[in-house]
Automatic annotation (TrEMBL), chain A:
It comes from the Bacteria. Pfam families: ABC_tran, oligo_HPY. This is Peptide/nickel transport system ATP-binding protein. Belongs to the ABC transporter superfamily.
UniProtKB/TrEMBL annotation, chain B:
It comes from Actinacidiphila glaucinigra. The chain crosses the membrane at residues 32-50, 97-121, 128-151, 157-176, 188-208, 263-282. GO terms for cellular component: plasma membrane. Keywords: Cell inner membrane, Cell membrane, Membrane, Peptide transport, Protein transport, Transmembrane, Transmembrane helix, Transport. This is Oligopeptide transport system permease protein OppC. It is a multi-pass membrane protein. The lineage of its organism: Bacteria, Bacillati, Actinomycetota, Actinomycetes, Kitasatosporales.
Amino acid sequence: MTHPTAVLGVPTSRPAAGSPVLTVSDLRVSFPGEAGRVHAVRGVDFTLHAGETLAVVGESGSGKSVTATAVLGLLPDDAEVSGSVRLGDRELLGLSDRRMSAIRGRDIGMVFQDPLSALTPVFSVGTQLVEALRIHQDLTAAQARERALELLDLVGIPDPRRRVDAFPHEFSGGMRQRAMIAMAIANDPEVIIADEPTTALDVTIQAQVLEVLRKAQEVTGAAILMITHDLGVVAGMADRVVVMYAGKPVETGTADELFATPRMPYTIGLLGSVPRLDAGDRTALTPIEGTPPSMVDLPAGCPFAARCPVAVDRCRTEEPALRAVTTGAAHATACHRAQEIDAPGGIPSPGMFPTPASPRRPGGLPRAERPEVLRVTNLTKHFPLLRGSVFKHRVGTVRAVDGVDFDIREGETLALVGESGCGKTTTMLQILDLAGRRAGSVAVLGKDVGRLDGRGRRELRRDLQVVFQDPMASLDSRMPVGDILAEPLRTHGWDRARIAGRVPELLRLVGLLPEHAERYPAEFSGGQRQRIGIARALALDPKLIVLDEPVSALDVSIQAGVINLLDELQAELGLSYLFIAHDLSVIRHIADRVAVMYLGRIVEAGDVEDVFARPAHPYTQALLSAVPLPDPRKERQRRRIILQGDLPSPADTPSGCRFRTRCPKYRDLAPAESGRCDTEDPAAGVLGEDHSAACHFAAALEVL
Amino acid sequence: MTTPASATGTAAPPRSRSRGALVLVRFARNRLALVGIALVVALVLLAYAVPPFLHWTYHDNDFASLDTGPGAAHWFGTTHSGQDLFALTLRGLQKSLVVGLVGGPLTTLIAAVVGASAGYFGGWTDRVLMWFLDLMLVIPAFLLLAVLSPAFQHGTWLFFVILLAAFGWMITGRVVRSMTQTLREREYVLAARYMGVHPLVVIFRHILPNAASILIIDATVQVGAIVLGETSLSYFGFGIQAPDVSLGTLIAAGTPDANTSPWLFFFPAAFLVLIGLSVAFIGDGLRDAFDPTARGAKSRRRARPAVPRSRHARTARTARNPRRKPTAAVVPAAATQEGVTP
Ligand code: SF4
Ligand code: SF4
């Protein structure tokens, strides 16, 4: 079954474009688990052709990452694997570790989500690249170093001669991912396997890295197998797509077919639940009810049957096989009713999943007349930058937040967006701290926090609540849910009887059952846990809830339900939200107003529709253009504004305009004009009724 | 989806049990822990209820049988001066049970409160407490005792136990402090803080229960340590003085003769082991009861969540950046419906 000679021989010629390079057939993987064997992958087939990009998409637990790991031969020893993985005509399954490592890094390049764990921390990036080159190729040390410099240059690492001897931790996340790509293509592989390569990165950096990946593919002609959960990334990168659910492909086809005419209910639901940046008005998302099945003992029949709105009896007894939609077509689905979907007189795919009606908003008063719930004026937070271990001395100042102003009116949602390091989290913590002494002022419900005494501050906490990002970390895992929900009530002096009445009420409010009060958080899924977090925030009937990335840890199909819930609660209870996020698409669905932060400042703010349709600050424009759209056609037509470099350190902010070092507009300006950006800090200029931007040359640009 | 009709129909659901009640229920499910409790009760009964019925008291000397082995007249044998070892051991058991069962947990309590306060509040509180802790570590206990001894010569046993605890908490205190420093940053602690929960309540409600495993293990170890440690204090004229005895003093007195008269050492030592064992059982049960993921404490009726908890599934997940990585793969069998829509 293996071809030892082929393993040793270096492939001399590249397979012709379009010929299969990697063939996976009937791949099955299972692990021993506490509750029984986990059948993580249950029969995967696909063929990767030279020069193409195949994306395997699915939510967590769909088996997509295990598939990639199996192809790479990196599964743990106790995993049981069967089927076949062929690279060219070599069978890879069953190869010894030694043989496999000869193939990995030479014929198959790898790009992982977290490059920090894939790069060895104690060796410089250059050393590791040289080593990768010399293991697989016959090069002298000097030649290898030269080649390493070329590669670093190719992936866009500025000044490679200086950076080549840096250690991985001295690189930013984006840089590390570039270095990882350089390593992946070092030996001119036939296949590059990229497992969630940009999931940990900010959108503007993601756009850079995807660009590098495309370039790497052009240079090497390698086929890319891309594992991801992000449908936007898929639309922009993939030629063909495999959608996985419960360990099996449920729909495959070209990217265009799949996004335009999905035929499997799961794919239809998934596409419907993705928040879209280019969606028109603020609409409710379409969640897929339920959660994916347990991979330990799958029920008979279609694994999606429990969540499928069009399931019939047959679905519960017989598992559908993957079949071509029309004979001979590449587009295939695993669904008994595939023929009926979108057929004349069949099941129309729009509206297949019930979309909850957008909640009625008590529109009424115009914004200016509604009472202010939160006003932040000139909020500033500087941290001293200390050096020295014994005698600490101040060597600088980190300007995490540097003069931020905004306000939130009753019943509205303000989204504070920005990439990591922009100061949005510090801003949030500053507000939540309700600390008295600080630069700038925070007023909640018209009360200046700085003037409150301890008692008044405690009273105010009732009206100001928070929901954190990670639903696992924000619930004390050692407390039953009932106690978790009772905590704010107890703290604010409710008696036992009232608490006992309130807890079930709260659980129902967020769509859980009163019986759930006795369970521990670990017994719930991510989406349910986030609902518990929301219920806790609602306990005291607050006026303002600070939402810190409340859905970014959830799968899209679950995320949609939580977003809808937040929307409904807002309409029902008249809440105001401060929504901290990095995901612009989510914001489009939930926010009324948006404030974009960069290096401790708000650079653009205003009504969501206005800002998204006519972004005026170059940073907002770049940010919006970097967000991938789940639509291959649109993706192809878009022009991306790719920002150069990384975020400067907030300890060393540029003079004049802070965005100057990366601003695309700045580079195009005449020297006389750009001088203004160098020296003069732009103030927020009013552009419309509710729209302002801090740029000397603000001008609207359509980027979607 | 926020209107679960299935739930609205049920009138006033039974009040859900709080953490305390649930921990108790889970503890009671652990058979070994119940054995531990039974053992402690048996030991207490033996130590307090049996001596009045014995022929010999612990301070009687049977000059007819000096240094004899176990037999019908003296079940555990006798000492060099003819004291009945059974009576002595029970008397020692009385003292040691009190000292151990009160002193062990007390030591841990001091460690927990000082360590958690230092770690949670930080700043000056931390500096002062740590300074004090280091001082306690470097000052030899006997020096301090030598200074104190005239003043407290006639203290009660309670005072004596407190003194013992005061010399044993420092190492654990440091461990708790560093654990607290990481726990303090957790989001659920932040959440509690932003709710306006009093800092001391946060410590007892969120910090310490999450450090429960180590605290419980520490408390069980301290029970044994303190029973033995008590003998060294006796040198300074504290606590248990001859002719009164404790297991510690009995073991100390019996050790040199362990070869020639093994019973003098083994019987008291066996009782110490029994105390240690029962406490370890109880500790184990408590730890599982506090830890919702522990297997033993789960009701056997309720299906375990069908989580693919294989090592790989977990490492695969944690290797990911948590930020945008969906974590909803966990599917409890008992709560299958996301959103529980009717
Ligand atoms: S086979 Fe049945 S349950 Fe599965 S997706 Fe198709 S219609 Fe739905
Ligand atoms: S002020 Fe100048 S540098 Fe700053 S964003 Fe505007 S054009 Fe760019």
